[in-house]
Each structure stands twice: as structure tokens, then as C-alpha cells.
UniProtKB/TrEMBL annotation:
Domain ABC transporter positions: 5-255
GO biological process: transmembrane transport
Keywords, ordered alphabetically: ATP-binding, Nucleotide-binding, Transport
InterPro entries linked: AAA+_ATPase, ABC_transp_ATP-bind, ABC_transporter-like_ATP-bd, P-loop_NTPase
MF annotations from Gene Ontology: ATP binding; ATP hydrolysis activity
Species per Swiss-Prot/TrEMBL record: Alteromonas profundi
This protein's name: ATP-binding cassette domain-containing protein
Family statement: Belongs to the ABC transporter superfamily.
């Protein structure tokens, strides 16, 4: 597999000095260096406030970094991007799924219009050309073409997550970033969603970066694990290597907590 994304020296610095009667809050993420291969699944784990969600937002360009560079699909993006066309290309190549899919869906807008938005804003396709693409995407994520006309309240939690997934891959990105995409789902729907993502990843050749506290899912689908603490990567490696021989104290703590919840005969 070849690298589809290369991150070099990605850094974010935040200093909140305007806090009445409180100490200034200073947080630095990075510098982060990492590579992502085509079709690879990477899990980012760590304790709360480790910087996992912030890193995800920096990767997709939702928040500009202080410095650093991202090379994605042979296009380089500086931390402080300025040109709209550069950011638009980045929008095509990397997309994000949020944890609570229902909150990202406007209840007054039908599913078809929600999925139409990324095409309308980022392509020159006509409405007549966009509609069949949307219907095809609905079937690809396990929904019906008729769901084009459904509203949020007419969908189950699992169906809402499928709509969020459809919107994320509507522009055929190379990398999909997901922040706790399974946390709000019940176990049955969670299993179906995981299998769907694995299927789409194989069909589309997507690289998948996801943040999760569920190490059972991480062990099941991740090729590689990145462990974060206080805004830095403290350990990374192949999934089974991390689970069998964790090196850093944070990694050992997370793996031990996972093992304490799993029947011993299933741990290898």
C-alpha cells in the first residue's frame, strides 16, 4: 500500500489568558508526524483531553493549525491555508463523520437535500445529474432510494448514521475521519455500521481514521493504532503489537482497562 496522506510537523497552540480569576489555559498539540496508507484503518486512542478530536479537526481543515504541512493525494496544504480553491480540493479528498449524526442533520431538510449540498457546493453538476448519484449512494449505504424524501424524525439512529456516512463519501474522498462514530449506537446497529464501513472501505479504497474509546472495535477493525497523551503521540504500531506488548504507561493503562472487561479466555 502506498501513502495517501503524510502529516509533517502539524502543530496547534492555544493560549487562553482572558480567564477572570483563573490561571491561563495553555494547550499545545504536536508537532505531529504521521502517514496514512491507501485503504488503511488507523485508530486514535487516548484518555480524555489527550487531543484526539482536535487532531481530527486539524486533519480535515475544520480548524487551522499553527504550523505544519499535510500532503494529501499528492497535494500539499500548509497549516494556515488562504486560497479557497486549495481548501476546496482538500474538502474533496478528506471528509469527516461526527459522533452524533442527528445533530448534524437539519430536521426541516429532507435526506436528498442534505446529500445534495456537498455536490451542489463542490461540483458543477446540474440538479438532474446530482439526483441519480444521491439515490445510488443511498443504496450503497444500505438505505432505499425512497429515503431521498425522508426527514430526520422518520429515520432510526442507525439510518441517520448511514445518511451521515453517505454525506461523508458523497464526494468520493480518499480519507474518511470519524470522531467516535459508534458511541451513540446500540450494539446491534453498531455492528452493522462497522461492517458497512469495512465493506465500503474495500469497495472504494478508502483510508479510515477513527477516534474511539471502544477498544473492542479498535482491535477488530484497525490495522494500526496511534496513542495520544497531552497533545502528543506517545506510541504507535500495528494493532496486535499494541494490544500484546504495550510500551507506554498510557497504552498499558488503556489495554489493561479493556482486558478487565473481556472474559479471559478471549484474550490472546
Amino acid at each position: 500500500m502506498t501513502d495517501i496522506m503524510q502529516v509533517n510537523g502539524l502543530t496547534f497552540f492555544h493560549s487562553d489568558t482572558k480567564r477572570w480569576l483563573k490561571k491561563p489555559e495553555i494547550f499545545q498539540l504536536g508537532p505531529i508526524d504521521l502517514s496514512v496508507k491507501r485503504g488503511e484503518t488507523i485508530a486514535i486512542i487516548g484518555e480524555n483531553r489527550a487531543g484526539k478530536s482536535l487532531l481530527a479537526k486539524l486533519l480535515v481543515g475544520a480548524i487551522p493549525a499553527s504550523k505544519g504541512e499535510i500532503e494529501l493525494n499528492n497535494h500539499k496544504y500548509l497549516a494556515k491555508y488562504n486560497k479557497q480553491d486549495t481548501q476546496q480540493k482538500r474538502t474533496h479528498d478528506i471528509r469527516m463523520i461526527l459522533q452524533h449524526s442527528s445533530e448534524s442533520m437539519n430536521p426541516a431538510v429532507p435526506v436528498g437535500k442534505i446529500l445534495d449540498e456537498p455536490l451542489r457546493l463542490n461540483t458543477e453538476l446540474s440538479e438532474a445529474e446530482r439526483k441519480p448519484l444521491i439515490e445510488e449512494m443511498l443504496t450503497k449505504v444500505g438505505l432505499l432510494r425512497e429515503h431521498y424524501y425522508f426527514y430526520r424524525h422518520m429515520l432510526s439512529d442507525g439510518q441517520q448514521q448511514r445518511v451521515a456516512l453517505a454525506r461523508a463519501i458523497m464526494l468520493k474522498p480518499k480519507v474518511l475521519v470519524a470522531d467516535e462514530p459508534f458511541a451513540a449506537l446500540d450494539p446491534t446497529i453498531r455492528s452493522q455500521t462497522v461492517n458497512l464501513i469495512l465493506q465500503l472501505q474495500q469497495e472504494l479504497g478508502l483510508a479510515f481514521i477513527f477516534i474511539s474509546h471502544n477498544l473492542g472495535i479498535v482491535r477488530h477493525i484497525a490495522d494500526r493504532i496511534i496513542v495520544m497523551e497531552n497533545g502528543n503521540i506517545v506510541e504507535e504500531g500495528k494493532t496486535e503489537t499494541i494490544f500484546r506488548w504495550p510500551q507506554h504507561a498510557t497504552t498499558k493503562k488503556l489495554v489493561l482497562a479493556y482486558q478487565s472487561l473481556v472474559p479471559q479466555h478471549t484474550i490472546r
